[in-house]
Structure formats: structure tokens, C-alpha cells
Design brief:
The structure holds 2 protein chains of 2 kinds.
Chain A (H helix, E strand, L loop, with lengths): L3 E3 L3 E4 L5 E7 L5 E8 L3 E8 L6 E2 L6 E7 L2 E6 L8 E8 L7 E2 L3 E5 L1
Parallel strand pairs in A: 2-11
Antiparallel strand pairs in A: 1-3, 3-8, 4-5, 4-9, 5-6, 7-8, 9-10, 9-11
Chain B lengths: L2 E5 L2 E5 L4 E8 L3 E9 L5 E6 L6 E3 L2 E6 L4 E6 L8 E9 L8 E2 L3 E6 L1
Parallel strand pairs in B: 2-11
Antiparallel strand pairs in B: 1-3, 3-8, 4-5, 4-9, 6-7, 7-8, 9-10, 9-11
Classes of the chains: A mainly beta, B mainly beta.
Chain lengths: 112, 113
């Protein structure tokens, strides 16, 4: 079974802090994704990566950056957290043949 | 811009009812449509549909794609309280290895005992 692991289930940070959300997958998938999920808005793509050190902006990249130094790990960075970044963050991975993506359990981030 | 619309946005039924969840889409160069179920944690994969008219079935759940109407339905028969969840529909275009999904807003299904 594919396993996508997000480092924290719940996180509380203060406005202005730098926040790192970590995601690791164990299936050697090329593609990895970061989404945020908000009530009434569904899942929105922040960034995705299709190879090590490669990244592409999704639909809502503003205020975020990412890092993919190793194939299995994809990090989402909030350079200066703001209250409007309070959300559920979901990481996912997939292979190019289109199966999945497979999601992690999510990190619920609260910025106060 | 790719677009996915799900309806209804929420639904309350009683155990034993049959429900039909709808998903319509606009996507350039369609490749596949996926359904996910999300309870409290990660969305879990249900079905991937690529061809029109071929029903995918798993227990009480089934789904079918209509490429002419640009839509899909997810049916759940004899609903149980464990079917209460958010059901997500997503479409994937043909853009090579870098294809990304566009999700709908989800349908919240509540099954009452």
C-alpha cells in the first residue's frame, strides 16, 4: 500500500512565523502535490513537483514556497504565516501512469 | 481553465436509501475522472474512469462516465451510516507526466440511522 506521511496532524503557529510542513512518500512516485482544503472551496492546488528539484505553481501559490531535494520528500513552506493560511493542508503523490494521487492524512494548521 | 462542478453540495438521507451524486466537468483534452471518499482524514481513492458507458463497481458503490455529457455519477445503494463522508470528484487532463487534477468542491453526504 502507498503510504504518504505528513509530519504533523495539528499545528498552531503565530502570525509572521516561518512554517514548514513535511511530506514523505514511500512508493518512489515522481509526482507530489500540496493542496489546501477549506469549507465551501474544496481542494485547491498550491504547488506540485514532478521530479527532484522541479516545481510548478498550482492555482494558489501566493504566500507559499516548496522544496523537493529528495524524491520521497516534498516540503511546503509558509515564509511568513498569516491568519488566512489557517486551513487543512493535504500532501499527495502519484506516478505518471495516472493512478492516484494518494493522499496523506493532512495537517490542520491554525495561525493565530 | 479546467472546471469541475459537483451537485448537490450536501445531502441528508436515511439508512437504506439509494443516493446519486453528480459531477460535471470542463477540461481540455480529458484523460480520466476520479472519485474519492473523505471521512475525517485523507481522501481515499474509489474509482478512476476513462471510458464512457463502462460501469465501475465496488460493493454498494458504482460509477459511470458519460463523455458526451461531460459528466459522471456515483451511486450508493442501501446506504449505511459509514457512508457519511465528503465525496470528491476530480478530472485529469492529458498533459504528459506533469498532469494535475482539478477537484470539485465535494458533496457532503450524511446518512442518518
Amino acid at each position: 500500500d502507498v503510504k504518504v506521511t505528513q509530519s504533523s496532524r495539528y499545528l498552531v503557529k503565530r502570525t509572521g512565523e516561518k512554517v514548514f510542513l513535511e511530506c514523505v512518500q514511500d512508493m518512489d512516485h515522481e509526482n507530489m502535490f500540496w493542496y489546501r482544503q477549506d469549507p465551501g472551496l474544496g481542494l485547491r492546488l498550491i504547488y506540485f513537483s514532478y521530479d527532484v528539484k522541479m516545481k510548478e505553481k498550482g492555482d494558489i501559490p501566493e504566500g507559499y514556497s516548496v522544496s523537493r531535494e529528495k524524491k520521497e520528500r516534498f516540503s511546503l513552506i509558509l515564509e511568513s504565516a498569516s491568519t488566512n493560511q489557517t486551513s487543512m493542508y493535504l500532501c499527495a503523490s502519484s506516478s505518471p501512469d495516472g493512478r492516484g494521487p494518494h493522499f496523506g492524512n493532512g495537517t490542520r494548521l491554525t495561525v493565530t | 481553465e479546467d472546471k469541475v462542478v459537483q451537485s448537490p453540495l450536501s445531502l441528508v438521507v436515511h439508512e437504506g436509501d439509494t443516493v446519486t451524486l453528480n459531477c460535471s466537468y470542463e477540461v481540455t483534452n480529458f484523460r480520466s475522472l476520479l472519485w474519492y471518499k473523505q471521512e475525517k482524514k485523507a481522501p481515499t481513492f474509489l474509482f478512476m474512469l476513462t471510458s464512457s458507458g463502462i460501469e465501475k463497481k465496488s460493493g454498494r458503490l458504482s460509477s459511470i462516465l458519460d463523455k458526451k455529457e461531460l459528466s459522471s455519477i456515483l451511486n450508493i445503494t442501501a446506504t449505511q451510516t459509514g457512508d457519511s463522508a465528503i465525496y470528491l470528484c476530480a478530472v485529469r487532463p492529458h498533459t504528459g507526466a506533469n498532469s494535475k487534477l482539478t477537484f470539485g468542491k465535494g458533496i457532503t453526504l450524511s446518512v442518518r440511522p
